[in-house]
């Protein structure tokens, strides 16, 4: 049974940040993750601070300096269906369109998608695991076929977002407002690995709210794709995936960004694979070498070694399509 909590609907971002900074408060955006966590008893809330009364956080608009501004309350469906996103940032449109189901994409927000909690069945279930203050990661010796092969220890969750790797591949920035003011940071500094903080997935302090996502102007010659493999064709999280952006010039790769999904506690960038592509045509040799480099250092658990071959196959297919 869902425990009673207070409901607040502030009229400004500043008021929302102040309310969310109070002990026991949680921010409500689309609610597709928060309400599930509360119903399942993953954590409790004394108060829920709704952002639904803040229209300034919704919508997609041109950035005066070039690129796009995406309000954090913009739904995944609106991101996926926006003609400007589809034309200039197809990797993001594809990632948003691949998340969850049509019903959830119409409700879930892009800010919430970046901040959603892990889907690990031990974390979501009735287990007092490390992430909930316990002393054991039950995935290490348990059912770990969906857990990470990079960046684990002491906790082996995977980050569930599809839009996060796409935005990281696009070098996006986040605007954040909190009780102490506002700041803008690169998305690359937003996520936190378990080795640094086993209780948090990102750097947001109490009361801080993502207000917008900023995308720079699209690069000339850029091509991008998001490829995701899942158990079912719909309504499922990635077993593994890849957001890839390559910039082509005179038939060769002048720059590349490759970010994996479904394999690490945060979107997992693979610089060694990117560097192998630089200055080369996207031919079979370069693609094969980059895919092999992307899985170097993988540390599979007892039941998820299949993800290594899966990542290689995803990257080979994606890069071949971009060629």
């Amino acid at each position: 049974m869902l425990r009673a909590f207070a409901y607040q609907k502030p009229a400004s971002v500043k008021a929302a940040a102040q309310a969310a900074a109070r002990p026991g408060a949680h921010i409500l955006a689309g609610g597709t993750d928060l309400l599930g966590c509360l119903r399942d008893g993953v954590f409790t809330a004394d108060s829920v601070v709704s952002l639904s009364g803040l229209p300034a956080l919704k919508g997609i608009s041109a950035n005066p300096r070039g690129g796009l501004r995406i309000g954090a309350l913009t739904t995944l469906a609106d991101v996926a269906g926006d003609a400007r996103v589809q034309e200039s940032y197809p990797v993001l449109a594809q990632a948003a369109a691949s998340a969850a189901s049509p019903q959830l994409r119409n409700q879930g927000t892009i800010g919430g998608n970046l901040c959603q909690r892990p889907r690990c069945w031990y974390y979501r279930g009735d287990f007092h695991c490390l992430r909930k203050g316990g002393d054991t990661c039950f995935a290490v010796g348990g059912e770990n076929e969906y857990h990470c092969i990079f960046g684990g220890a002491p906790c082996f969750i995977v980050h569930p977002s599809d839009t996060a790797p796409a935005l990281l591949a696009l070098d996006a920035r986040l605007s954040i407002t909190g009780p102490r003011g506002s700041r803008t940071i690169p998305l690359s500094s937003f996520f936190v690995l378990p080795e640094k903080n086993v209780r948090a997935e990102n750097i947001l302090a109490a009361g801080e709210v993502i207000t917008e996502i900023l995308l720079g102007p699209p690069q000339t010659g850029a091509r991008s794709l998001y490829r995701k493999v899942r158990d079912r064709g719909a309504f499922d999280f990635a077993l593994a995936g890849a957001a890839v952006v390559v910039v082509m010039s005179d038939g060769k790769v002048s720059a590349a960004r490759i970010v994996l999904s479904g394999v690490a506690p945060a979107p997992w960038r693979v610089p060694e694979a990117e560097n192998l592509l630089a200055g080369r045509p996207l031919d079979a040799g370069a693609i094969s070498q980059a895919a092999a480099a992307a899985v170097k250092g993988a540390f599979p658990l007892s039941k998820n070694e299949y993800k290594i071959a899966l990542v290689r196959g995803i990257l080979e297919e994606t890069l071949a399509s971009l060629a």
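The chain has a mean pLDDT of 97. Residues 222-322 form a domain with the Enolase-like; domain 1 fold (CATH 3.30.390.50).
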